[in-house]
UniProtKB/TrEMBL annotation:
Signal peptide: none annotated. PANTHER family: HLYD FAMILY OF SECRETION PROTEINS (PTHR30469:SF15), MULTIDRUG RESISTANCE PROTEIN MDTA (PTHR30469). Gene3D superfamilies: 2.40.30.170, 2.40.50.100, Helix hairpin bin. Residues 67-215 form the Multidrug resistance protein MdtA-like barrel-sandwich hybrid domain. GO terms for molecular function: efflux transmembrane transporter activity. GO terms for cellular component: efflux pump complex. InterPro entries: MdtA-like_BSH. It comes from Mesoflavibacter zeaxanthinifaciens subsp. sabulilitoris. This is Efflux transporter periplasmic adaptor subunit.
Length: 378
């Protein structure tokens, strides 16, 4: 019985092996599936050479064109004024910014003025006797002398004798001594040189202000300048008075500026030249970061395309008979996203957008064909 069961199992294994081998042989002879060729659809443009302007892109921070750093030339207590000396405070031209207590110094000025008056009064009798022709003008000077006002200019000396007489009495030296004291007295009060706003305040009312101490900064918020650096190759084409398009980083606001100055010196390290752009707008603030587009020059018989369409070998892809090919191109100017090319024949069909995995000989299908201009390829 055991032999019969083993024989049946053996026959079954042989049958399974036979049919399995037959199945493998039949599958081996089946034809391989044909993989369909994928033809990519690409966006294309037809080249038409035109005059393309070179636009220099630069950026920088705004600074006030009129700026004053306030320093003290005298020492004293900072006295309270009509307006608080705080950042953001506005002042009109001629309005007092800072007033330092000058009571002690004012007294010394008045003393010097009084001495001058007394010296002139002392020589009046001699003038009446010895110089009767000049006595009236000196008498008029004394009559108009006011200790509470600025010392008036001395009468003009008529002749050499009068000069010797006045100078010998020490009148001229006393006068200039008074004027020197008055000039220093004026430094106890700092006025606004123009209408503007205080951007920095380093002292407060009641502070002891020392000689040479910085007190703050004052600017005119109506006019700003932006300093940008451009390549020295454009030094000859940048001119004063040209309009410049400006925008903020978010590209939400646009402004119009003017080239106010061009530095005549080229930076030896960076080989760039500094250009100053003046701009006015009520929304601008000092320190704002703006981008500028300066029109440098125009290139004839050229096109402008995206930078990523230019290969490292200075070539670009073209479409010929539904196949990709490459042709040489001459780059003239690079910007952040664009490149200006020459030597691309008119009528050439080029890619508008890069194709991943592109290679020469790749079969493609053009979806559209338009004229390549500066606006159509942006």
């Amino acid at each position: 019985m055991r032999k019969i069961i083993l024989s049946i199992l053996g026959l079954a294994l042989i049958a399974v092996a036979y049919f399995g081998a037959k199945t493998l042989v039949n599958n081996k002879n089946k034809p391989k599936p044909v993989v369909p060729k994928v033809v990519k659809t690409v966006l294309t443009d037809t080249v038409k050479n035109t005059t393309v302007p070179i636009v220099i892109q630069a950026n920088g921070n705004l600074t006030a064109k009129q700026r004053v750093e306030l320093y003290s030339e005298v020492q004293g207590i900072f006295k309270t004024g009509n307006k608080l000396f705080k950042p953001g405070q506005k002042y009109n031209q001629g309005e007092t910014l800072i007033r330092i207590d000058a009571s002690e110094y004012y007294a010394s000025v008045q003393s010097a003025k009084s001495n001058l008056y007394n010296s002139i009064a002392a020589i009046m009798p001699d003038l009446r006797l010895d110089f009767p022709d000049v006595f009236p003008k000196w008498q008029s000077y004394l009559n108009g002398f006011d200790l509470n006002k600025t010392t008036p200019k001395l009468p003009e000396i008529s002749n050499e004798k009068e000069n010797y007489f006045i100078t010998g009495r020490g009148i001229v030296s006393a006068y200039y001594n008074v004027k020197n004291l008055e000039q220093r007295l004026a430094k106890y009060r700092i006025t606004a040189p123009f209408s503007g706003i205080l951007t920095e305040a380093l002292v407060t009312e009641g502070t002891l202000v020392r000689n040479g101490q910085k007190l703050g900064e004052f600017i005119n918020p109506s006019v700003y300048e932006m300093e940008v650096a451009v390549s020295k190759s454009f030094a000859s084409v940048l001119k004063e008075g040209e309009n410049v398009s400006l925008s903020n980083l978010e590209k939400t606001e646009n402004y119009t500026g003017t080239v106010s100055r061009v530095n005549g010196n080229i930076d030896a390290t960076t080989q760039t030249i500094t250009v100053f752009i003046e701009v006015k707008h009520p929304d601008l603030k000092e320190g704002m970061y703006l981008e500028a587009n300066l029109d440098a020059e125009k290139v004839d018989n050229a096109i402008e395309i995206d930078r990523n369409l230019l290969l490292d070998s200075q070539e670009i892809y073209v479409v010929k008979d539904s196949l990709l090919d490459v042709i040489p191109a001459k780059p003239i100017h690079f910007s952040d996203t664009k490149v200006i090319l020459k030597d691309v024949p008119n009528g050439t069909i080029i890619l508008r957008k890069p194709v991943p995995g592109a290679y020469a000989g790749m079969r493609v299908k053009s979806s559209s064909s338009t004229t390549t201009t500066k606006d159509s390829i942006k």
